[in-house]
């Protein structure tokens, strides 16, 4: 896990190393920089690989968040990781209530966030990022409520109620990708705790158990349908009204793809998309709308970091598949946290295909936490780490019945 974090930090560092003119002028796309020195009559200076060193320095400074998260998580004991689940879920709930205030008509400006006025984005600047955060809450809530060894009976119903709340707020955000990751979040979250849920249902009489499941499913379906019927499901409305030809991201994709190929094999520099796109932007795409990112982080990483970024992405995906496959094949009581980490990373992977959520500090931290949970997967002897201790649960609340 530490390898990925420090490799990601090493990339911008390498791109900031000054290169002699003979080298950087031979790189693709540096003609404009070369001409600038000729116009003012100066010799070509030593320049780094990055087209915009200031932007790359900013990208490097952003690595403070994942590195700090990694170091803090390394200090935790196995039991503490379950407390992190509760803390993260609490943050999602707090952000959700902030989004509900916006949804109900409360208008306020974030002093530190450049958000869009009138959007339901809570503590994020982007509704897609907030919808992803709520979808991650859909993964956290079942594990928190039905974690193996959990004897606090009221947590289960509260977890189901949170799923309904998160589903509603995702619909309210207007994020189309949020709908997809939300559905996956609910499904994977419940799948992760299915054995514990089935165990609890078996304690009831069969007719009561069937009725309870039916009521929960009906309540979830009714909530979604009612939200759509009343016109409060902005995400669903945007899917219905989708016009691909008017989507600026779709219009810019051919230009971005050509840029990605042009700046290979070394890339334009991490964090440089904005100035580099303005250099290559065709006249027909000139607009009052600010196009700050590709809105596809898979492509933007390759554009910025070149083949090195592509190789790092391939290694990361291969590691995720290897660890995730093992975690989901093992008994759920031993691998709830690794499965949770695998599912969280999957949602972020999907959301990154239409936006750039992993560039936000909160999601950066979540990526590191989820990867650490997934990395703790062991084929044998994983129970000590992945199962919440009954003693700590018993201390928190008296056992019932």
From TrEMBL:
Superkingdom of the organism of origin: Bacteria
Membrane topology: Multi-pass membrane protein
PANTHER family attached to this UniProt entry: TEICHURONIC ACID BIOSYNTHESIS PROTEIN TUAE
Domain O-antigen ligase-related: 162-314
Residue stretches spanning the membrane: 55-76, 88-108, 128-147, 154-172, 178-195, 207-230, 301-322, 337-354, 360-377
Key word Zinc present: no
Organism encoding this protein: Croceibacterium selenioxidans
Protein name as annotated: O-antigen ligase family protein
Predominant localisation class: membrane
MF-aspect GO terms: ligase activity
